[in-house]
Automatic annotation (TrEMBL):
<dbReference type="GO" id="GO:0003677">
    <property type="term" value="F:DNA binding"/>
</dbReference>
<dbReference type="GO" id="GO:0016987">
    <property type="term" value="F:sigma factor activity"/>
</dbReference>
<comment type="similarity">
    <text>Belongs to the sigma-70 factor family. ECF subfamily.</text>
</comment>
<keyword id="KW-0731">Sigma factor</keyword>
<dbReference type="InterPro" id="IPR013325">
    <property type="entry name" value="RNA_pol_sigma_r2"/>
</dbReference>
<dbReference type="InterPro" id="IPR013324">
    <property type="entry name" value="RNA_pol_sigma_r3/r4-like"/>
</dbReference>
<feature type="domain" description="RNA polymerase sigma factor 70 region 4 type 2">
    <location>
        <begin position="130"/>
        <end position="179"/>
    </location>
</feature>
<protein>
    <submittedName>
        <fullName>ECF RNA polymerase sigma-E factor</fullName>
    </submittedName>
</protein>
<dbReference type="InterPro" id="IPR014284">
    <property type="entry name" value="RNA_pol_sigma-70_dom"/>
</dbReference>
<dbReference type="InterPro" id="IPR007627">
    <property type="entry name" value="RNA_pol_sigma70_r2"/>
</dbReference>
<dbReference type="GO" id="GO:0006352">
    <property type="term" value="P:DNA-templated transcription initiation"/>
</dbReference>
<feature type="domain" description="RNA polymerase sigma-70 region 2">
    <location>
        <begin position="23"/>
        <end position="90"/>
    </location>
</feature>
<dbReference type="Pfam" id="PF08281">
    <property type="entry name" value="Sigma70_r4_2"/>
</dbReference>
<dbReference type="InterPro" id="IPR013249">
    <property type="entry name" value="RNA_pol_sigma70_r4_t2"/>
</dbReference>
<dbReference type="InterPro" id="IPR039425">
    <property type="entry name" value="RNA_pol_sigma-70-like"/>
</dbReference>
<keyword id="KW-0804">Transcription</keyword>
<dbReference type="InterPro" id="IPR036388">
    <property type="entry name" value="WH-like_DNA-bd_sf"/>
</dbReference>
Amino acid sequence: MHDHENNLIEKSKQGDVESFETLIREYQTVAFNIAFRMLGNMEDANDVTQEALIKVYKSIKTFHGQSSFSTWLYRIVTNTCLDELRKRKRQKAYSYHHPIETEDGEIERDMEDYGNSTEEIVERKETIKSIQDAINALPEQHKTVIVLRDIRGFNYEQIAEILDCPQGTIKSRISRARISLKEIIEKKELYKNPYV
């Protein structure tokens, strides 16, 4: 499989579009999912994923295999998401009160199954919505590590490579991000139930 991927990479470097499409096929879903979690809506996620994959195609000649191809690709996707978030901030087009689009099927594949009774499903969807809202409220750096570690399940080494940071930095960032996430969720719960 590794040789097959290397062969596709070499052909892609020579401009073979068909080989490139085959090469990125298995990574596209995760790439979109990272973008969806980072940006909060499907339309932006689609646009940014496409933009990132075009960047991957245009810069594939610079890929020399220091990391795995998937790590290199996800680094480009993550950086393109961060560029988009910064652009939003500059344009002030992003509103805190803007509702987050959800895609329950995708979220449920991302998160552990908690049970199937109607009550549990309703509670679970409410929990998923709270988590998504809270992730959206996090600063960029915290949002990125939560999406990569807790939603997508990358290990510390992979995240360090994707974000080009030392593992120690990643570990402390994840720890701080989880505390922030918990605080945001608790504040939202208190706001919803002030007399609890």
